[in-house]
């Protein structure tokens, strides 16, 4: 009996082990969590950046509806707009280097989840307080994502990353503004439908983000990286300062267009259709995306010079359009300024990125975007304050004149970069 029992136990053991074995080898059955290959990972990362920026510009065409429903002032609107930028800045300062320590994938997934929650708040918004909470949470999510996604693109394909880092945000802002404006004008329940579309997109991207490859090794110091600071490598500091004037002009103009631009466009054109404001935003950001593609065949220094000079011309045209209520000149100025900002953005990234090793890229990108979003937010908030005192028309002329003066300084300062390496 003991021999038969031992033989039975042996057969049972081998049968149990056979059930536990996979029916095919791991080499032929991919795991559902197997990381994406570099090429699809690159395109999905760019798509995530497009979604973040589309979500950031989507509320702009809706502000007029919110103001009619809740009766708040232009100054309140500017503060709602500014709350996003300040939250984004705080997130960049605190979390901008986190993906250098925890890895890109974890940080990107966390940012997508926060963005999803912010869109839920927009979707259910019932007052200005809801808008503020949604914009602040959205700013934090976008700030966390900005440096991680930019760095992921650089890790996956350094040659194409500067183009994609320039194209994706511009395309995203254009899609968010134009798409929302079209829904406001032609679709029912626009203050809900646009957010339902965004929620569906974000849900898909959270699932995909779980399969992104980790392009940097985990390393110690994650808690220390949360201490707010500008992490600019020593070799990049002087170059960044030299590039700031033209960068400031482009981002300050974009901030003005995204906050008060739709209202100004209605004044200049005399057309109150929601698509008018969306078209103005698209007229600036889509040429910027095109410029990021075109400038890949030019030296980085040439892109910087062309960008600074074009910003000057664009500001002149836009100011003429505002002063004489000439829609053609106004929109032409937006087109020229947008293309020029894309040139400047492409040249700036291609000049800065080689100055930082991979483990310091997220910190450098975070510092660059801190400077950019300060230019994006603070002047726009000051313009909102000035609008209450002097009116939108006078404020737009004064704001444009100051940016024009800075653009001239940037144009002269960038001429010495022509002989620089790409």
Q: What brief labels describe this structure?
A:
mainly alpha, Growth Hormone, Chain: A, single chain, 79% helix, 422 residues
Count helical runs: 17
- Any idea how many domains? 1
CATH topology: Growth Hormone, Chain: A
Q: Describe the main β-sheet briefly.
A: none
What do you see in this structure?
The protein has 17 helices and no strands. By secondary structure, the protein is an all-alpha fold. Helix 2 (38-57) runs parallel beside helix 8, helix 4 (74-95) runs antiparallel to helix 16 and helix 8 packs antiparallel against helix 9. The longest helix is centred in the C-terminal third of the chain and has 30 residues, at 361-390. The termini are far apart.
Give me the secondary-structure topology.
Blueprint: H1 2-20, H2 38-57, H3 63-70, H4 74-95, H5 99-102, H6 104-123, H7 128-156, H8 158-186, H9 190-209, H10 222-225, H11 234-259, H12 261-269, H13 274-294, H14 300-323, H15 327-352, H16 361-390, H17 392-414
Helix pairs in contact: 2-7, 2-8, 2-9, 4-7, 4-16, 6-7, 6-9, 7-8, 7-16, 8-9, 8-13, 8-15, 11-14, 11-15, 11-16, 11-17, 12-13, 13-15, 14-15, 14-17, 16-17
InterPro entries: MFS, MFS_dom, MFS_trans_sf, MFS_Transporters
Protein name: MFS transporter
Transmembrane segments: 41-58, 70-95, 107-125, 131-154, 166-187, 193-212, 243-260, 272-291, 303-324, 330-352, 364-390, 396-418
């Amino acid at each position: 009996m003991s021999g038969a029992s031992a033989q039975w136990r042996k057969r049972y053991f081998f049968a149990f082990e056979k059930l536990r074995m996979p029916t095919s080898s791991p080499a032929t059955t991919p795991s559902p969590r197997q990381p994406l290959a570099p090429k699809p990972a690159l395109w999905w990362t760019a798509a995530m950046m497009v979604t973040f920026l589309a979500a950031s510009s989507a509320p702009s065409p809706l502000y007029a509806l919110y103001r009619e429903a809740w009766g708040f002032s232009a100054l309140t609107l500017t503060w709602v707009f500014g709350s996003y930028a300040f939250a984004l800045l705080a997130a960049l300062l605190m979390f901008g280097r986190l993906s250098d320590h925890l890895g890109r994938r974890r940080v990107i997934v966390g940012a997508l989840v926060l963005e999803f929650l912010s869109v839920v708040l927009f979707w259910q918004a019932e007052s200005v307080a809801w808008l503020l909470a949604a914009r602040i949470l959205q700013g934090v999510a976008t700030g966390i994502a900005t440096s991680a996604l930019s760095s992921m693109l650089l890790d996956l394909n350094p040659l194409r990353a500067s183009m994609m880092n320039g194209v994706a945000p511009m395309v995203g802002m254009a899609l968010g503004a134009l798409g929302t404006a079209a829904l406001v004008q032609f679709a029912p329940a626009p203050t809900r439908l646009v957010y339902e579309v965004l929620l569906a997109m974000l849900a898909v991207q959270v699932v995909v983000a779980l399969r992104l490859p980790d392009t940097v090794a985990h390393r110690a110091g994650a808690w220390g990286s949360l201490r707010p600071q500008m992490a600019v490598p020593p070799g990049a500091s002087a170059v960044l300062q030299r590039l700031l004037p033209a960068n400031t002009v482009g981002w300050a103009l974009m901030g003005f267009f995204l906050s008060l631009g739709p209202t100004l466009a209605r004044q200049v054109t005399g057309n109150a259709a929601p698509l008018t404001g969306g078209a103005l935003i698209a007229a600036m950001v889509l040429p910027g995306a095109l410029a990021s593609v075109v400038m890949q065949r030019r030296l980085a220094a040439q892109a910087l010079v062309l960008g600074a000079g074009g910003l000057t011309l664009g500001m002149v045209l836009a100011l003429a359009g505002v002063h004489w209520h000439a829609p053609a000149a106004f929109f032409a100025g937006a087109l020229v300024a947008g293309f020029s900002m894309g040139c400047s953005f492409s040249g700036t990234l291609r000049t800065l990125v080689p100055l930082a090793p991979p483990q310091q890229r997220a910190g450098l990108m975070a510092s660059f975007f801190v400077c950019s979003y300060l230019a994006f937010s603070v002047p726009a908030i000051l313009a909102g304050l000035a609008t209450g005192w002097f009116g939108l028309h006078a404020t737009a002329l004064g704001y444009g004149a100051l940016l024009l003066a800075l653009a001239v300084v940037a144009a002269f300062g960038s001429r010495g970069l022509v002989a620089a390496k790409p």
